[in-house]
Design a protein that fits this description.
Length: about 100
């Protein structure tokens, strides 16, 4: 099922996509910058205990999932899925209203 979008709709969808990508790169840059500082602080203050791995790991998992969502690596949960679900809920709502009237 193909959706037909107006020029304005396509513009706003593209603008949102660019914003999502920009947000991902901001998150990635923050991840690299902050973790570089944490690694330095850890190695400078207590090199016998390497705790910097924990924020590196957990925040890294978040960055990976953010990237997978933004770049639509798993399209099963992408825009097409969202559109189908929206239509499904709208049809259910329409059916429920007509059922009680």
């Amino acid at each position: 099922m193909e959706m037909k979008y107006s020029e304005e709709d396509r513009y706003f969808l593209a603008k949102k996509k660019v914003g999502d990508i920009k947000g991902f790169y901001g998150n990635l840059a923050s991840y690299i910058f902050v973790n570089a500082i944490l690694i330095f602080v850890n190695l400078y203050t207590s090199p016998e205990y390497l705790w910097f791995f924990w924020p590196l790991l957990w925040w890294g998992i978040g960055v990976v999932f953010h990237g997978l969502r933004v770049f639509e690596v798993f399209p099963a949960l992408g825009k097409d899925w969202e559109e189908r679900k929206i239509k499904e809920f709208m049809e259910k709502e329409k059916w429920n209203k007509s059922k009680w009237q």
